């Protein structure tokens, strides 16, 4: 009775909506005239869970574009960034790269932030045959997907971050060598990768694992994890952390007055707010880092100087990795002499695979999976400052082991 | 196997955590008792209060505990308005379902606004006594955790006295037990319901401040809280404040102890297992809660 | 007794039909128009890939279709029984992971895995439904939210099986296809699934089973008293809904290729489903589809407009709140009612009138409309004169 008429009404509405939808979608397509700017498409998590590092990466890219343009651009053309927000969501990141490549017709794409988003994004780029240099997919899984166009623009993947530290510990005289270790890692491919890289090496050398905790990224109460670690009285504590979880874990450990001989945490201790966040009880905490502001590489000085002028603070690791990504792409474009979709991309891929690029984090080269062949430096908090202690040829201070009480 | 010290430490941590759960679940179950409303936004208000505490500490330099002077009355007012302006407008027939959606929408809105104003960065109050602790028979008790527990305990006790010893509490309990009958004996149930909502939200203000003392906060954190809290109120018997408090202590303690053998993630599942088991075998809950059968 | 909302619905819809039509509908003409409109709709949907200017638009179309399938699947429970599940996102996630695991671990062919996974999800829906539906409203919603949260925990923690936070890569069912072709194929697959879901909904709507379900929606106690096996009915329709949701999730997994527990078991997915269905109107076959179009496009718009802030959450929240508060029967029915009222001011809708007018009007309507209401309650207007 009435229902049928209601339906008719409905379907009219539907037809109208569909038409609108089609019309709305029709607009917008990129212009890539030969003399125009080189458009580089990027999707970044500017909102959502990864928004903080995402914004760091954005600043790094912006600094790179600005500095490149001041130096005359690429191939005589200006560089223009097209940045979309993926809301820290894998569905969106894929849609964004589809949009950048298919609709906006960008000339080049570079990577987003976080391993979780890099893999889906890299697949889109791969299937459209685009070169994909990325600043953040550090977990080893990224390189096990069989991608041929992907390159990670940093010195080392997560599992290799602690290589120098492992070498140092295993070279200690037998009576000083730690016997036991406790590990706690966030359930995140990158954070876990750093802790487990070290764990594998230490276990192989006979250092017993007493605690091995994995906590979900949304954990805010570290009391129980800390209790387990403290109760184990392990010689070493290794945290596979991002920023805030590392801070919380350290505070929770300090609340329990646990004093290990060595405490290593990824990412968190290199953050400028770290010392204040844990009440300045930083003494002896170790952290791997892929970037140092006073690293002696030629382009680094320019980067630090101009970045600081642009943003009012010195660049951190996320910013540096994004900048590095830009440098790698720029080197390839300059060497190959083209920057557009199509055959050019394959040439760019070939070039990156077979060459070494000078960057702000040092010379980079890659194996056939796109994995960089390097290791991270190790920094330690000493007397209220964080200093490079490993490797020996880059150190600013000697590693203190066993560490003083925190 | 876990040493005695670790067990004891975990029991202490579990009790401290359970106290906070108890306070928050009390508020959540109170709304249900009054209006048969599942207030999804309860934990979003909790995070909002935590943000206000953090903000007043880091921007104004005020001790986070003092922020309650503002947040508690503010949230009480919010609660009254929320009940009177929004929830009372819903049709009684579909109230339970639609109120879930409405409070869900409020939770999303709060989360979005927090993200907009404070960004998604994780925040933590940096207190001078943040890592201070004292020993108790070999276990360590962090000062901030104890303060948080104390806050929760005081708030719960106040709530208890309010409900048991005052005329208002009598009217509130009457409204919870039988709304129509309460109206017949001359209780202004609408007004009482509004105040009840205000009190529920005021507990979120206290809980949020307690939470902010010792943990990190970020806008989407409320999802992390609403699940366990909902499980607690079902296990405790929907609408029963003492039931919620009991269930909170039991589950908080269980979670803490289960973390020793199972790890953090799996230990959290205890809440949901308890929830499913309760609904399958004893839908009215384990600690009272006559109401729950029908809802 | 018809519920308040049912009466509103009747009031909003009846003016569309002329008094003559109400008594004896010109059935052949109506049917022809109806069939023609369905054909136009189908043609519109099917011609979209040819019209889409680039693969991105096509992929956006797939996302919208996926939303449409999901919200239509949700509407089996929400529309027929009035039980609002915020946890259907979890069922889609289960379908996705089920399909992916059956392909990668058990070596099943992609589409066999898809069907098996959907059946498994349906089977799993039995115990879930058993716990959730034994109790009324509130507990059902709590269980549905808890389902999302517990599955997120399990799939994240059980990384030896699911890959945990490393994610799970689903092999492409057609490895040889280029990406634009891949999109095209899946667009049609999603369209077919949507057609199937709509057909199933339509069949249930016309059946005795559907009548029983709608009786539950209107008044569960009375339905039970009248001999409707309410629990069994609710359970069956929940299982059907779960099966379709699982299919949609699985198909999405095959299309998308990467699964991550955080995104598969997200509370937002479920809330979008509810929003879409409510927006379009839960009592209507095409309601969720319309809602999916609106929400799908609106989400894009919010993102473009408020890109780098969290305001899209606020917008979603406010929209949901507005719908719940003012248009619980759906925005478009409300708009339709408003339009009718504008064109026929005499028969004004019961909305937007003062309380006094409303009271009088209700009293008058109740008397005048008694026979119509009786029919509406029993079968939402499906009863033939």
From TrEMBL, chain B:
InterPro entries for this protein: ABC_transp_permease (IPR001851), BCAA_transport_permease (IPR052157)
Compartments in which it is found: Cell membrane
Keyword Transmembrane helix applies: yes
Main location: membrane
Listed CDD domains: TM_PBP1_LivH_like
Membrane topology term: Multi-pass membrane protein
GO cellular component terms, A-Z: plasma membrane
Alphabetized PANTHER family for the sequence: AMINO ACID ABC TRANSPORTER PERMEASE PROTEIN (PTHR11795:SF445), BRANCHED-CHAIN AMINO ACID TRANSPORT SYSTEM PERMEASE PROTEIN LIVH (PTHR11795)
Protein known as: Amino acid ABC transporter permease
